[in-house]
Structures are given as C-alpha cells and as structure tokens.
C-alpha cells in the first residue's frame, strides 16, 4: 500500500515550508488540565525531527478533543511537551490562519518548528466533506499559499474526511509521514499475509464497528474465529438466544444498538461456531464481582466476561498464529472487572503468533500493563485501524493517493 502515495522520501524539503498534520490528541487530567499520556507526541516526534533535520521549516497542525468535551483545549502545553521530547524548541501560536499565524509561518527558518492552534477551534474542521470541498475552506485557502508540501502523519484520524486531513492534498504536493506509512504498511501486510488459525478478539463500546469487522473477516475467510467481549459480547450473546437480563437489554436499546442484535443473529446463522460469545459473565452484585453462567444471568449489569470465558478465549489465542484485538473485555478501569481485559492481553503477550492491538482503550490497557513491547504491533489509531479491518477505505489515505504531484 505504501507505494500508492508519496512518502517523505519523495520530496526534497530543504528550505521548504512543510505543513504536517499530526494526531497528538491526548488524555488530559480533568481537574488540572495536564496531559496524562504523551505516547502520541512521542510517536510523531520521528516525523517532525526527520523533517527538521532535513532543513524543512516545519508547521504542525493538530487537534485536541472536540467542542463540548472537558479536555477541549489549546495546544500550548502540547508545544511544551513536544519541545521536551524532541529536545528542540517548538514555537506555538494561538491561532490557525490569522495574520499572527501567517506571520509566524513566514518568519520560520530552516530546521524550526511551529505548532498552530487546535484545528477544531475552527468550526469547519468538524464537518465531513469531499477533499475538493475541503480545499475551498478558509483553513486550506489561507494556509496553502504559505506552504510547499503537505505531510499527513495522522493515522489515528485517517478515517475522517475533515479539512485539515484531506483539503490540502488537492492543490499541494502531499505525502504520508512515518507514522502513517508504518501503520498502513504493517496492518495491510498483516491482512494480506494472514496465517491460520487466525483469531479476532472484538470488544469495547462500539459494536457497529466490531460487527462490520466480524462480517468482513468471516466473509473473506481471514478469521477462523471471532471472540466477542464487552458490549459486543453482550449483543452477540443476546442474539444467540440467551436471556442477558432486562437491565443489559435496555442498555443496548438505549444506546441505539438494537439493530446490532439482528445483524449478529444473521452472522451466527451464517458462520455458526466461528462466532464465539461468553459462556459466563461477571456482574456486580452487592458491590462485588460475581461470575455467573450465561444461561443464568440475573437482572444485573454485566461488567466483564467470566473466568470460564477467559480460560476458553485464552486457549484460542494461544493456539492461533495471528491475533487481532480491538476493544477491552469489560469495565477494565475498575480493578474488580479488569480481569477479562488484562488476562486476554497477557495471553496475547505470551503468544508465539503475530499480535496486533487495534488502538484505543485496549492499547491504553496494554500500555498500562507494560506489555507493548511483547506485541507485534500496537496501533496508534483505534478508529482508523478498525476501519481497515472492516475493509473500509480511509478518507485521508485515499486523498493522499489522489493528491497533486
């Protein structure tokens, strides 16, 4: 896939102004506003440092959270954190395309780095439109005359068709940064060269994405089995005919996921026992974790898969040559219900097969256990990664493929 678009290697960036879209959206402490995890900043440091070392005038474009969220903030502290990581000064300007921002870009000298303000402070950034439509936005029309090249390194946001991600590719020579290049190469290569048995472990709180993945990988025979956990497991368990308790049914309905039950039922009918679901679950009863057989679930909230399911799934993982995982098995933030998520991550870490963690919360849980280095690949992008696993095209990648030479 990497050969379908330009990379940094294809451009001579010395003394050129290069706009780099990175994804440094980071968890922030709600009380202090301080960045809690600088993983993404460290990831993008490679691309930024390489461009700086090659003599580029580097302009960084990024976002933090979204309007209405508590962690929606300026990027001032991101500039400081990135400066520390790079051991280089990262300048910061608190606007995107005002005169002060433009003047700051024009004043850049080779090797210097400037971070612009949170792209989502600009209302048009949150709209999804075609690259041609995005190329006509104020953000793109105001900044394009000031830059020579556009580099998209924001794999974690590559499934979105927003102005900062696709708009510059229409009229500016564009390339993938090192994070984008590596993610696309590793994930696509893994999908193209799957060894069997291949297991997909799907959980978390976004069942529509997981069920898209399930349908794709079972239909094209990538997966030999799909192990479901989290709300995905609860939906598939309900679809199998089990009574999961009124409180859990109502939770699924309240989230608008009722149609996922019928979709899951169809997949069970089509693919039979390739679709695995919990044989026991963990509920919170009188403040304690209680593991209960799936045939006897009370009207209590399900917070994790049960111990029998953990053992069953762990065996499947140990016997597999390829394991793809997305989404935690339960409410892993609560120590009582972290067992499913942690034990399955440990099973992957001890596997001799190829292991891919699909970003998001399960990546955070893996990092929290200190097991990143035991995985074949830990993706930086949950949404983008799961879109690839579901067989969908990534808007920002397609834009790079069709970009101006």
Automatic annotation (TrEMBL):
Amino acids binding substrate: 23-25, 40, 63-66, 120, 160
Gene Ontology molecular function: ADP binding; ATP binding; phosphoglycerate kinase activity
UniProt-annotated location(s): Cytoplasm
Keywords from the named record: ATP-binding, Cytoplasm, Glycolysis, Kinase, Nucleotide-binding, Transferase
Reaction catalysis annotation: (2R)-3-phosphoglycerate + ATP = (2R)-3-phospho-glyceroyl phosphate + ADP
GO biological process, one term: glycolytic process
Keyword Oxidoreductase tagged: no
Pfam families recorded: PGK (PF00162)
Binding residue positions for ATP: 333, 359-362
EC number annotated for this UniProt entry: 2.7.2.3
Residues binding (2R)-3-phosphoglycerate, per UniProt: 40, 120, 160
Pathway(s) annotated for this protein in UniProt: Carbohydrate degradation; glycolysis; pyruvate from D-glyceraldehyde 3-phosphate: step 2/5
PANTHER family (UniProt xref): PHOSPHOGLYCERATE KINASE (PTHR11406), PHOSPHOGLYCERATE KINASE 1, CHLOROPLASTIC-RELATED (PTHR11406:SF23)
Family label: Belongs to the phosphoglycerate kinase family.
Subunit structure: Monomer.
HAMAP family in alphabetical order: Phosphoglyc_kinase (MF_00145)
Name of this protein: Phosphoglycerate kinase
Organism the protein comes from: Methanobrevibacter thaueri
């Amino acid at each position: 896939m990497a050969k379908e678009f330009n990379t940094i290697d294809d451009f001579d960036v010395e003394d050129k102004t290069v706009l780099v879209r990175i994804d440094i959206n980071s968890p922030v402490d709600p009380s202090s506003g301080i960045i809690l995890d600088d993983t993404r900043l460290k990831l993008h440091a490679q691309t930024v440092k390489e461009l700086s070392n090659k003599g580029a005038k580097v302009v960084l474009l990024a976002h933090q959270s979204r309007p209405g969220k508590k962690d929606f903030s300026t990027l001032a502290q991101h500039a400081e954190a990135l400066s520390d990581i790079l051991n280089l000064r990262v300048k910061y300007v608190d606007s995107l395309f005002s005169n002060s921002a433009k003047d700051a870009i024009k004043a850049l000298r080779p090797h210097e780095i400037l971070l612009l303000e949170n792209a989502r402070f600009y209302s048009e950034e949150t709209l999804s439109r075609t690259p041609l439509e995005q190329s006509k936005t104020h953000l793109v029309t105001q900044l394009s005359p000031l830059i020579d090249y556009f580099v998209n390194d924001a794999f974690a946001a590559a499934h979105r068709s927003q102005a900062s991600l696709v708009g510059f590719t229409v009229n500016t020579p564009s390339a993938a940064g090192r994070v984008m290049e590596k993610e696309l190469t590793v994930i696509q290569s893994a999908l193209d060269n799957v060894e069997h048995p291949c297991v997909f472990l799907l959980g978390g709180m976004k069942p529509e994405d997981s069920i898209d993945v399930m349908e794709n990988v079972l239909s094209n025979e990538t997966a030999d089995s799909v192990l479901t956990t989290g709300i995905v497991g609860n939906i598939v368990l309900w679809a199998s005919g089990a009574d999961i308790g009124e409180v859990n049914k109502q939770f699924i309905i309240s989230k608008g996921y009722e149609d996922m039950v019928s979709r899951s039922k169809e997949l069970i009918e089509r693919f039979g026992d390739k679709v695995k679901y919990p044989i026991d679950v963990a509920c919170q009863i009188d403040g304690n974790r209680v593991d209960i057989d799936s045939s006897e679930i009370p009207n209590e909230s399900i917070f994790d898969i049960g111990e029998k399911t953990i053992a069953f799934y762990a065996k499947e993982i140990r016997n597999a040559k390829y394991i793809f995982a997305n989404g935690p098995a339960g409410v892993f933030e609560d120590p009582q219900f972290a067992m499913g998520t942690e034990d399955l991550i440990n099973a992957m870490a001890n596997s001799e097969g190829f292991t891919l963690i699909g970003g998001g919360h399960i990546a955070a849980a893996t990092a929290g256990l200190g097991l990143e280095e035991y995985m074949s690949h830990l993706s930086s992008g949950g949404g983008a990664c799961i879109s690839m696993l579901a067989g969908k095209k990534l808007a920002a990648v397609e834009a790079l493929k069709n970009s101006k030479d």
